[in-house]
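thought: fold this chain, then report.
action: predict
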Amino acid sequence: MTSPYLYKLLKRTITTVLLLIISFGAYVMIINRNTTDMTIRQKILRAVYPAFMWMSKKQGKPGTRPENAMQSPVPFYSLKAMLPNGSALSMESFKGRKILLVNTASDCGYTPQLAELEKLYKIHKQNLVVLAFPSNDFKEQEKGSDEEIKAFCSVNYGVTFPLMKKSTVLKHQGQNEVFFWLTHASKNGWNDRPPEWNFSKYLVDENGMLIKYFSPSVSPMDKAVLTLLSDKK
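observation:
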């Protein structure tokens, strides 16, 4: 292998890498042309989201409420969640509708699911409410204030569904009341599974019963979710 050949090979490799970087940079800019105040990381995560979901899709197995699960020892409708302004939101106000509860973050690979959650909410608004619980529990991927989170979600993903006050969703001291109920079988009747990452999803039915857990890798527009929401009781 001669020296001129190695030089040509190196030059070709560098040129190819540079073209790939430039092409990816252009793609990221196109995908994020309508975004506001996003960090470079957030823009890249948004751009690679389809590939990210494709790679993680096999992990997305929903947890289902067992047929022999007991009724909720603690009524779901007795719970309250805190809104960003400090007031309490009673879960009883959603009685008769399905509720999808999701722990969200602005700086995560799954953050583009905010757009899918909004789409789902709009399609099923008559019988579904989506409640977002911003949390900084996973790798500090939600560092913003409640005001910053609301602006980010609204401007970049068109979110109109309710956002709760930023809180802790994991099983340790300070866990918010709603996620404490969702992750303790002694409260909900069957499930002890905590969120495994940002954008874990818990589905409560029209009667206040926890019926499904969907992992972050399950898209809000996945067939498994849509089929369940189309079921009418």
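thought: worth noting. The helical segments are 3-31, 40-56, 113-123, 146-157, 177-182, 185-188, 223-230.
final: tokens above.
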